[in-house]
Amino acid sequence: MKLGVLGGGQLGRMLALAGYPLGLRFRFLDPAPESPVQELADLIVGRFDDLDVLERFPVGLEVITYEFENVPIEPARHLARQVPVFPPIAALEVSQDRLNEKQLFQSLGMATAPYAAVDTRDELSRAVDQVGLPAILKTRRLGYDGKGQFWLREPHDLERAWQALGGVPLLLEGVVRFERELSQIAVRGRDGSMVYYPLVENHHHEGILRVSYAPAPNTAESLTQEAQAFLHRLMEHLDYVGVLTVEFFQQDGRLLANEMAPRVHNSGHWTIEGARTSQFENHLRAVLGWPLGPAQAVGCSAMVNWIGHVPPPAKVLQIPSAHLHLYGKTARPGRKLGHVTLWGEEETALRQALEQLRPLLAEG
Length: 364
Known about the structure:
The protein is an alpha+beta fold. It is built from twelve helices and 17 strands. The protein has three domains: about 1-85, Rossmann fold (3-Layer(aba) Sandwich), CATH 3.40.50.20; about 115-175, Dna Ligase, domain 1 (2-Layer Sandwich), CATH 3.30.1490; about 180-360, ATP-grasp fold, B domain (D-amino Acid Aminotransferase, Chain A, domain 1). The chain has helices spanning about 10-20, 50-55, 75-80, 90-95, 100-105, 120-130, 155-165, 220-240, 270-275, 280-290, 315, 345-360, and strands spanning about 1-5, 25-30, 40-45, 65, 115-120, 135-140, 150, 170-175, 180-190, 195, 200-205, 210-215, 240-250, 255-260, 300-305, 325, 335-345. A hairpin with a 5-residue loop joins β9 and β10.
């Protein structure tokens, strides 16, 4: 049985590694010949909008999925007329536009940070009057890992922000004074069944995820129930199939929805070693219509991204609970090159492992 995957990055690589023990095979489509999947699977190198490529890619595939949310919509629709595509294109569309995303969240009863749409310089001034400062001006489309964003702290920042980002649809988002960032990962099968991973606490630096703790420590059951109830409503609304992640801010004991990712997610990498079924295996089960696996955490985990550099693997593996994953990428500043997952039966053991890792993080 062969699956197609749009995108050939590290998430696609981990999907393939999860699928091979299940007897699955993969074909990837990516414009870059040096994609992390190149040595693992059949890779078609080409543009997503190349009609010749779109005719060849789906031949013999059981189902098509994607490993990043900026897949062009029309090529995805074209493929869906030939082979089932999951998650559904409706989820892909809404996740690609921050305004539509926030409007959907609020329509389903989930609070968000204050925001306003911005298309002109005058609208930016009015949006600041409405939302207040500090705020973040963001492109509505294509931003990720801190890209396509400009902080506004003082009125004199408006002109520089407009010069940097103006000319495309924008969103001004008020800065939320939050206690921490959390993510909820859930999976919905083709039969409507759902499973939920525990809430995860995330720490970012310069817009890039650096560390995730799972399960999120010191989390009230009411918070978990709120997150899972919202994911349930969202997946039902979208008739969703596959892994879905929503990132939240925790503020005064409540959740504010920040953004969604209709795919396997960086904050779920810990599930490979730290959950009864990884997010990657469960995504494959879901899109194929197979039974979903249990999503409970096993002990406590911390996932640490390697950004821009990777220490010698032998040093990392001196930590008894370390599980190292390298993506086969060429090193450059700000690039995710791999991750390490640390595990402990309880939180104290996990903290001890993190202390052992800390000197290696400082090396870069």
